[in-house]
Amino acid sequence: MTLILASQSASRRAMLDAAGVTYEAMPAYLDERALEASLQGSPPDLIALALAEAKALAVSKERPEATVLGSDSLVAVDGRRFDKPASREQAAEHLQFFSGREMQLFSAACLARGDQVLWTHVALARLQVRELSEGFIADYLAHEWPAVAGCVGVFRIEARGVQLFDTIEGDHFTVLGMPLLPVLGALREQGELPA
C-alpha cells in the first residue's frame, strides 16, 4: 500500500516522519479560498473538515490506488475565522485582535482512496492568548516573519509562538496542525501501519 500526504506542510511532514510513517508528499492543487467562500456561514470545524476532504480527494483522483491523507487547520477567535496572513502588516493586525482572547484551533484530517472518503476526524484546541503589547508584537514578527506567513494563527508552537499563550487546552499534535493520534489509529485500521 502507498500512503500520500496531500500537503506541503513542513509541520505535518515532520509529525509523520517522527512517528516513523512511510509516505509520499504530493500537494493538492485546489482553490481553498473559493471552497471556504462557498461554505460561508458554516461552523469552523466543518470548514476545516471540508478542506481536508477536498485535499485528500483531489490527490486521490490522480493516485486512485493510494491511501491519501488530507489535513487542514482553521483558527477562529470571537466567532471570526482567520486565514494565513497575507503580509507582515496583516500578521500584526491578527495578533492585535487575538490579544487577550481565546483562540480556537480546529485541525481536521481525512483519509481517501479511489475517490472515496474512508475516514474523517476534527480535533479542537483552545489557546488563551495573553495580552500582547505592540512592542512584543513588533519584536515577535521581527524574529518570526516570514516563517509564520504560512501559519493560521500566526504562530509556530515549536518556536517563539509559544510565548503568545497563557494556557493551552488540547492535544499537542492538534496545535501543530494535524490530529496525529487519531490519524495513526485510522492508518492502522486501513492496513497502512502495522497493528
Folded structure, characterized:
By secondary structure, the protein is α/β, with parallel strands linked by helices. The protein has a single domain (3-189), classed as Maf protein (Alpha-Beta Complex), CATH 3.90.950.10. It contains 7 helices and 7 strands; from the N terminus they run βαβααββαββαβαα. The model has no long low-confidence stretch (mean pLDDT 95).
Indicate the CATH class.
Answer: Alpha Beta
Number of helices: 7
Indicate the mean pLDDT.
Answer: 95
Major sheet description: 7 strands, mixed
**Number of strand elements:** 7
**How does the overall form come out from the CA principal axes?**
globular
Q: What structural class results from the helix and strand content? A: alpha/beta
Query: What fraction, in percent, of the residue positions are helical?
Result: 25-40%
CATH architectural arrangement = Alpha-Beta Complex
Gyration radius from CA atoms, angstroms: 17 Å
**Low-pLDDT runs:** none
- Report how far the terminal alpha carbons are from each other: 15 Å
Q: Please trace the helix and strand order, writing H or E for each element.
A: EHEHHEEHEEHEHH
Secondary-structure map:
Elements: E1 3-5, H1 10-18, E2 24-25, H2 32-38, H3 44-62, E3 67-77, E4 80-82, H4 88-98, E5 102-113, E6 116-129, H5 134-144, E7 165-169, H6 172-176, H7 180-189
Parallel strand pairs: 1-2, 1-3
Antiparallel strand pairs: 3-4, 3-5, 5-6, 6-7
Helix pairs in contact: 4-5
Can I get a quick summary?
Helix content is 37%, strand content 26%. The chain has helices spanning 10-18, 32-38, 44-62, 88-98, 134-144, 172-176, 180-189, and strands at 3-5, 24-25, 67-77, 80-82, 102-113, 116-129, 165-169. Helix 1 links the parallel strand 1 (3-5) and strand 2 (24-25).
